[in-house]
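Hi support team,

I've been running sequence recovery on a batch of backbones for a student project. Most finish fine, but this one hangs at about 90% for roughly twenty minutes before it completes. I'm not sure whether the input is malformed or the queue is just slow. I've pasted the structure tokens below so you can try to reproduce it. Let me know if you need the job ID as well.

Thanks,
M.K.
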């Protein structure tokens, strides 16, 4: 059975793309068949895994708005094996064009994925940093949402707003949408703030918060410039250890049902 997980938080710079890349890679190393959908016009996930190969290359934009067959757009990356639906700057215009469609504009991504969904164990969607129509498409196509939360002030405010959006999507388009989990990112055990924010989020959201926190680790920020996940870039790093643990925790939760 395939599971579609949207990695979402309307704040930029909280670790969505880093989590999308490294969770996809971790799942692949566990033998899972993975599709990573880059759903951000910045194309960071695509670039970070070298899925942008040439100018004018078809992207998720063509799938979404021109109904191009996803099979024609998917880049098959090896070691670890990940199928990638890349994005580029063309996606920046997609929200205006989606708005023009009117009825059913929230369900486009879900429809486009229907024909390929069953080929995968996990489909990971790297969402844009906004709560616009692209994000709504991702949440409508998804079975669950993974929310990365950066250990900083105002972290909870952002989550509260995102949870309201999730509830709205549940009411309007996707009643079965679940919270996959809340992930504390850029955790720094040496700072009081990190520890306090983490405790605060855990107090508010209990078991929904992953036991694994992702530490602030320079290797995690260096790996994308080499086109690698953290597991190829430095498997001994604290970042690799943490994303390995997160992957196991996520799979365990899912396989327990
Ligand atoms: P988002 O996709 O939410 O905008 P990113 O994953 O792109 O966030 O992360 C924002 C920046 O922080 C990037 O430069 C990334 O390399 C860096 N970064 C993300 N997670 C970590 C971490 N745990 N430790 C150090 N740097 C990180
Ligand atoms: Mg990003």
């Amino acid at each position: 059975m395939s599971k579609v997980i949207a990695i979402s938080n309307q704040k930029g710079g909280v670790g969505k793309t880093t989590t999308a890349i490294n969770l996809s890679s971790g799942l692949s190393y566990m033998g899972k068949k993975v599709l990573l959908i880059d759903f951000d016009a910045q194309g960071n996930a695509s670039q970070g895994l070298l899925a942008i190969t040439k100018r004018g290359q078809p992207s998720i934009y063509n799938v979404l708005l021109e109904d191009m067959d996803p099979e024609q757009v998917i880049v098959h990356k090896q070691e670890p094996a990940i199928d990638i639906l890349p994005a580029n700057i063309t996606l920046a215009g997609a929200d205006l064009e989606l708005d023009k469609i009117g009825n059913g504009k929230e369900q486009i991504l879900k429809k486009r994925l229907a024909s390929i969904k069953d080929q995968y164990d996990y489909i990971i969607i790297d969402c844009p940093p906004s709560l616009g129509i692209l994000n709504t498409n991702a949440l409508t196509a998804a079975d669950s949402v993974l929310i990365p939360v950066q250990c900083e002030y105002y972290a909870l405010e952002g989550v509260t707003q995102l949870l309201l959006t999730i509830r709205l999507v549940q009411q309007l388009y996707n009643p079965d949408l679940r919270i996959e989990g809340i992930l504390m990112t850029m955790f720094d055990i040496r700072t009081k703030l990190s520890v306090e924010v983490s405790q605060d989020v855990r107090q508010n959201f209990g078991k929904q918060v992953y036991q694994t926190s992702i530490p602030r680790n320079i290797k995690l920020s260096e790996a994308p410039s080499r086109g690698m996940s953290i597991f190829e870039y430095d498997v001994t790093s604290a970042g690799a250890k943490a994303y390995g643990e997160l992957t196991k925790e996520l799979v365990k939760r899912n396989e327990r049902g």
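--
Follow-up from support: It reproduced on our side and the slowdown came from queue contention, not your input. Residues 28 and 249 are 15 Å apart (CA to CA). No action needed from you.
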